[in-house]
What does this fold into?
Amino acid sequence: MCRFLLYKSTSPILLADLLTRPAHSIIMQSVINKLRIDMTMPMNGDGFGIGWYDDEPGTAGCLFTSTLPAWSNMNLQRLAEKVRSRMVFAHVRATTGGTATSEANCHPWQFGSLMWMHNGSIGGFEKIKRRIQNSLSEDIFLSIKGTTDSEHSFAVFLNMLEDPHKPVFTYQELRTAMLKTIAQFNEWLEGEEQLSLMNFAVTDGQSVVCARYVTSAHLEAASLFYSSGSEFQADGGKYRMVKANKREDVVVVASEPLTYERTDWLAIPTNTLLVITPKLNVHLHPIKDKNWNPNRGRPTLN
It folds into this structure.
């Protein structure tokens, strides 16, 4: 199971303050991940990717991906000490479904101004792969370069947008497309016994939509947390989310908390969308489909 992280703020952050320096940074999570479901593969060493945006709305972000483990890539260390951004995606990969370790299979992926990453797996993906591809428009089908269920999920999402080539989207458009994507997979996977874990994240550099979702009304989805405040910074050598006022100037979403300050982090409920608007308002939307269960018990998957 992969790990991912995203950051959105009113002010840019040095990538090192997200990726390498915190006590439980995304790089540390590539080696030690305490909330992983599949502990038979305890490391995320099958490549990584970092995506970030500049300050011009509607432009494509920049991607840096590699098949090397994140903990041993010196270029990542160098970039992290120099690059600053208000909008960051980061992902460390553990292969699922026997897919190859290649740069084409490393998250995040891009299409125009949109960026996408996934933690989880589509159960029975090989059984529906042809149906997925047949459902896509020609340009979206041709944009697929790798072999993963995650990139195909991005293609399904793009296909749900009225115009995936637009430079900027409203958060409502992204939210609606995410809900349609999950609903479409549920339709294709009807009767499939394997669970699907759909922790998806998408951004156009302005808005963000994340899903924490599992195709079960009883089990918990793969872990996903968020933290918000006025600044994410080092305090006496330890990182934490500073809440200097009631404003939300920073939102961080992560598969596992980056710090050990438990009060800084909230778990996103299972089968829920988290939306971050361009003004950094955070909205939680329950996904009330056949797998919605308001009385879901304590986690058995976490």
Observations:
- Confidence is low (pLDDT under 50) at residues 298-302.
- The two ends are 11 Å apart (CA to CA).
